[in-house]
Amino acid sequence: MGSTFDYVPVQLTKAFREAQTDENFQGWLKMQEAVMEIEFPIYDLPDIRDQMFTKDSLAIVEAKLVDLYANERAAYASKDDLTLTMRFVYYIGETFRRALDATWVALPPRNKEASPHALKPAIDLPFSEAFVQPLDLVGMALNRRSGIEITRVFGHMERAHAKWVEAGKPPRTYRGTLREVD
Q1: Nearest Cα to 90, choosing from 127, 147, 47, 52?
Q2: Best CA proximity match to 155, nearest among 130, 132, 126
Q3: How many CB atoms lie within 10 A of CB 108?
Q4: Is 93 exposed, middle or buried (0-12, 13-18, 19+ CB in 10 A)?
Q5: What pTM does this model have?
Q6: Which CB contacts under 8 angstroms, 24+ apart, belong to 78-82?
């Protein structure tokens, strides 16, 4: 019988490596970065203009999402909703990325039958095998409607990051024991 840790960590798969160079993903990152400089702080959420990418701004972002959309489905109901929601997704992810010495990555689809372009943006944490997935954070915020979902996760990651920094930023270790053969 196999161990619970008999799996290949996503970061060590060929699909993951290939996903990072996907033109659609790279284009999305560049487009969102440009939007953050003008559209987001001026038109979408002027309340955060003076505190861009801070922990405190995440509560304002979550409140705005809850105000805009009745649920997760509504956030993706139209092309305009999708465009706006993805700006919030980027903002949330970029706030985590900046605070946690992390990087943007594209997660390949889990289902082998899915389109190879069905990538999910995520934040790869240098101190964990796990990812922060801003799309999931938006879903939690909209479905639970508590107003504290995103900041709660941020707090957990902030504490884990502080422990990692205090330990001297050791290299990431993977719980998964298997490795993919290229």
Answers
A1: 52
A2: 132
A3: 23
A4: buried
A5: 0.94
A6: none
Give the residue ranges of DSSP H helices in 23-112.
23-37, 39, 55-68, 79-99
Chain position carrying tokens 């082998």: 112
Task: Decide if 95 contacts 58 (C-beta within 8 A).
Answer: yes
Q: Which amino acid, one-letter code, is at 10? A: V
**CA-derived radius of gyration, the chain:** 17
Q: What is the pLDDT of residue 104?
A: 98
Largest CA distance in the chain: 57
Collect the ranges in the chain with pLDDT lower than 70.
Answer: 1-3, 112-117, 182
- Burial of 76 by CB count in 10 Å (0-12 exposed, 13-18 middle, 19+ buried)? middle
pLDDT digits (tens, 9 = 90+) for 10-23: 999 999 999 999 99
pLDDT of residue 178: 87
